[in-house]
Amino acid sequence: MSAQGRLPAYFIPHGGGPCFFMDPPPGGPGTWDHMADFLRSLPGDLTEAPRAILMITGHWETAGLSVTSGAHPGLIFDYYGFPDSTYELTYPAKGDPVLAGRVADLLEEAGFPTELDAERGFDHGMFIPLKVAFPDAAIPVVELSVRKDLDPAAHIAIGQALAPLRDENVLILASGMSYHNLRGFFANDRRVEAISEGFDDWLVKAVAQPQAARDAALIGWESAPYARVCHPREEHLIPLMVAAGAAGSDTATHAYSDVVLGKKLSGFRFG
């Protein structure tokens, strides 16, 4: 593909558990509507359908890196306490063993040892947002873990290693949440709302910068206002680093902005 045909990379929110496939919270009938609308808009935002999707999810952590390599991965229902119907959801997307090998090769060449995992299924950080965005499950998907050390610089470098896939008609989707403090999510406290806005404002400005400044800001994300309040543990933010790395010199668009349960959330398109 030419540079003009290069697919973008995204950092997308995946919501709370199976939120799009159950009744909304009491008193909040439209809680997840805008997020669902954003996810549904993804196919129309592309100039052509991707041949495959590479998903980086904050719900799979490994010591090194691992990539799903099975031809027909099952689903992992890694959420708890939800209605029985949400454990009967299906998403029969195929895997792509050839793409998995390509991902591993790119990462190995960049100095990141990577294991092929033919047994691993798709966690809800993958199948919940994709069931909204690509409901026919016709596009093969490969899922990549994040490293347990959650090193932001390393994950930017991981994204840089994966950037060639964007020219190979592979859609890179980094699945997480720009705010992820579960206790804070359910706190009816205006101070918590203001805290989420402070961090989100910083994040939007940081991601909008040119590549060098953007990378430096994301590597130093812990110095952002309220960083550790919004992310007591950063596994849901780290996928953003991979998307930013894959972006290279491409600039970011603030593709999604919403307030969910009083907390400010964002998503980004690179390229």
Automatic annotation (TrEMBL):
Cofactor(s) annotated in UniProt: Zn(2+)
Q: Which CDD domains match?
A: 45_DOPA_Dioxygenase
Q: Give the signal sequence positions.
A: none
**InterPro entries assigned:** Extradiol_dOase_DODA, Xdiol_dOase_suB
Which keywords does the record carry?
A: Dioxygenase, Metal-binding, Oxidoreductase, Zinc
A Gene Ontology MF term for this entry? zinc ion binding
Which superkingdom is the protein from? Bacteria
Domain Extradiol ring-cleavage dioxygenase class III enzyme subunit B, residue spans: 9-252
Into which family does the record put it?
Belongs to the DODA-type extradiol aromatic ring-opening dioxygenase family.
Q: What is this protein called?
A: Dioxygenase
